[in-house]
Amino acid sequence: MTLLLAIVIGVLFTVGLYMMMRRSLTKVLIGLMLLGQAINLLIFTTGRLQRAKPPLIPLGAEQISQSADPLPQALILTAIVISFGVTAFALVLARQTYTVLGTNDMNELRDTDIIPKYHPESVPEEEEGL
Amino acid sequence: MQTVLFPLLIPLLFIVLTLFAWNAPRLQRMLSLFGSSALLLAALSLLAQVQTGEIAVTQIGNWPAPYGITLVADLFSAIMLTITGVVAVLVAIYSLEGIDENRVAHGFYPLFFALLMGVCGAFLTGDIFNLYVWFEVMLMASFVLMALGGERAQLEGAIKYVILNLTSSALFLSATGILYSVAGTLNMADLSIRLPEVNSPGLVTTIAMLYLVAFGIKAAIFPLFFWLPASYHTPPVAVTALFSGLLTKVGVYSLVRVFTLLFLTDVAFTHTVLLVLGGFTMVVGVLGAAAQYDMRRLLSFHIVSQIGYLLMGLGLYSRAGLASTIFFMAHVIAAKAALFLVAGIIRRVSGSFDLRRVGGLYRDQPWLAILFLIPALSLAGLPPLSGFFGKLALVRAGLAQGQYAIVAVSLAVSLLTLFSMTKIWMEAFWKPIPEKSPSQNREAGYKFSLVFPALAMGLISVVLGVLAQPVYGLADQAAGVLMQPALYAAAVLGGLR
Q1: How far apart are the first and last CA of chain A?
Q2: pLDDT tens-digit readout, A35-53
Q3: How far apart are the C-alpha atoms of B478 and A105, rounded to whole Å?
Q4: How many angstroms separate the CA atoms of B281 and B174, rounded?
Q5: Cα-only R_g, chain B
Q6: Of A46, A78, A120, which has the smallest distance from its Cβ to B291's Cβ?
Q7: Predicted-complex ipTM score
Q8: Domains (ranges, CATH) in chain A?
Q9: CB A32 within 8 A of CB A20
Q10: Which of A18, B8, B227, B229 has its CA 20 to 30 A from that of B52?
Q11: How close B4 comes to chain A (CA, Å)?
């Protein structure tokens, strides 16, 4: 089981990173989401897999033995909630960027880098904002 | 009195209050002044408390460490909180004039306090997963602050900023997952005891490097800094000053924390990596700045360059090295924020951030010139300003450790920094007004709320220089605590008695 999950995690990381290197903004975001899933599985697996052993103290017993570790699951739950919020924001931002800039291609998002506005040769005519 | 909680509760309270005042922008502006001042007071009282050598600890929900979440304030945390408070107050004053009505109407102030809460949480937490959560609080607020306003450049910068920071968070989270499987705990004090006992030092070093990359992206160190000059210059200057003062410094703080508390199993390797990266960060940052004509982009590259100095002190890993890093942190936050704020005033006065389109400011605005000159010379490291003493301390720490290469690099980069500052001086203040100059607005530079924060930041730089001895003493004391992880562990786990 651990081996299987390890392979799945590896595949998810690979696919996620591959997608993040694509030029399309949407694919980059899909890559980020896959990466998030890969990490959740990673935490789950490294927290040691136990089958059907809930972390509950049986009635009358003083302590539990041989149970699943609840902490990784709590961590994953937190991570899922955070990635939900962040992904929602990133999607809206991507949409807004597409509406305003009219492109979805990461290679064309160069205005804040060197080309063309900040090229030493070009003197901008008008500036936005403060 | 749980003084440790106040730096978190005050921003939270003011998020709520400013949200209630959603339709009353003027009230929000007033609240921001009160809130940031209260935060500064809370930070100062915490500083006074831990200055005696005490490490203030609060166990949330009274769950004893290492089972619950712990908030810890040692002297280093308290110093960082105090700096945060000062930056918050001054940026709040600058924002009175520097942030337009539209941005306030769309929630600038709640986000401002959310950012502060995230930053304070990151400085205070004693649990590494909780640190991740505070990072996310801070990042969410900064994402929206960066995009707020929705200008073309802002959206583009925000996309780059968001994607790279999410990648960094992903690495942070996976490193934390692996760390938990190796050590079985996430409490930093507990980790500092258990990690040396783990019998696979190679795995621990791997985790250390994962953290280095994750925090390195946030701190914008070489070769992970590219998002910073691509995005920091896009939002309003008040936001940029806030970001440059706080966000990258949280990355550096986290690096200092994990590399003085947790990952000490292979100091010869990990801290040498830090030192080398520090050297490259300094050089690449300052060279990148040389090609820039937009003031904000030029200053953004200098943020990167100065991060290198902070890494240098950490990489030396001696009490003197860490003390100089802490001193340098205070210096660079003040100097950098002052420069960004002055750049904002120049933009208002002369209509452009572009150095080729402005000029003649020394004749028109001699006071503005002085306002610029103080932090600029301080950044370059001229006596008697704070930068000189920060660099002096770093150089002495480097010589004491026999790391001559990094000392030479740091001195050379100082010179290049001076060159860069001279460039702004020559272009913006010294040369005559260019013909294609945009419309001038001479009165804009004299608004109290714009000038006062820049002046105050510059004065802090002077005061840090004049009072270098006591301030360095405080930093040295903080470094002394950092160099003894056992003290930290004892203070946190003392609750187990």
Answers
A1: 57
A2: 999 999 999 888 777 777 7
A3: 48
A4: 25
A5: 22
A6: A120
A7: 0.87
A8: 2-51+69-108 (1.10.287.3510)
A9: yes
A10: B8
A11: 24
